[in-house]
Amino acid sequence: MTANLTLFRKRFWLIFPNALIVAGLALFSVALIPYLRDEVWYFLKQQKGQEFILGGSGQRDSVFARYLSARPILVEPVDSQFGLVIEKLGVNVPVVADVAVTDEAAYKESLKYGVAHASSSSYPSKDPGNVYLFAHSSLNFWELGKYAQVFNLLRKLEAGDTVHVFYERSDFEYRVVNKEVYKGFNTYALTRPVIEPLLTLQTCDPPGTTLNRLVVTAKLVGVK
Q1: Which end of the chain is more exposed for a tag (fewer CB within 10 A), N or C?
Q2: Domain range summary for the chain, segments of one domain joined by +
């Protein structure tokens, strides 16, 4: 009996570490699926030359339209009271207003319902101000909700790209002018002084970490 118990213990300690490694790799692979999905979609979109068109004509957004069709996809903002549309990235999400960036519990809860608008920042306007919107580019979607990967592709934005913020049924059109990476929890992009109407988009970088902050800055070019 003692010999069998000793043998069992030896086998257990041989198998258990390997089982943990396999489980960890499996969980990591599952976590990567949404990120890889977005990368694959973006690659296919570029290869097909497919466009997302705000207004106008086109097919409705769907899995079939995104992956199998090359026809333009019609974009109607999901929230014209406060919403964000980035045609290049296929982003069309509501914005949760007045979220405290210093209250982790509050902003994590808000990010389950869309992109968060920093309470200390401006609202969309023709007047000088900084509209600061932030969202996840995360891997643990099972914890953070359906918008956990909404900014996974934010780094794909380049100078000249267009971003739309809908606010009180007006379309505020911004043009990207800069993209930077800040170390750690640098808050300069939120607190910097501005002399013109700006939009700041921020997420974690690399996706799934809190090592850096990826910040995209855009200038207002028109209101419809």
Answers
A1: N
A2: 2-223
